[in-house]
Design brief:
Length: 114
């Protein structure tokens, strides 16, 4: 997908600080962080959102979470805590339509809906 910024980052065609990459996923810093640690973990294959996930994607989604856990530990977040968030659709805050998991942490985050 030539117009997808995440696909371009994965292909090395757009700049990003890559923290992890393998044959299934790539992780990099969010350019608009909302917490001191804000990392995106994205599947290398373009999937628009959770709405397009199929049964055969279950292992890939699990891998996203495992990679996020390793990155949380690498960033010292395991003791105090962190959040894993997947936004689906514009009303949920999804602004890039390539499935991605936000790993956020490094400060207290009270739970609240506004």
């Amino acid at each position: 997908m030539n117009d997808c910024i995440f696909c371009r980052i994965i292909a090395g065609e757009a700049p990003a600080t890559i923290l992890y990459a393998d044959e299934q996923v790539t992780a990099f810093y969010d350019i608009h962080p909302i917490t001191p640690v804000h990392i995106l973990v994205v599947p290398n294959r373009h999937i628009e959102s959770v709405n397009e996930v199929e049964e055969e994607d279950a292992k890939l989604l699990g891998h996203l979470v495992v990679v996020a856990r390793h990155l949380a530990i690498a960033n010292g977040l395991e003791r105090r805590g962190y959040r894993l968030v997947i936004n689906t659709g514009p009303d949920a805050g999804q602004s890039v339509f390539h499935l991605h998991l936000h790993l956020i942490g490094g400060r207290s985050m009270p739970f609240r809906f506004q």
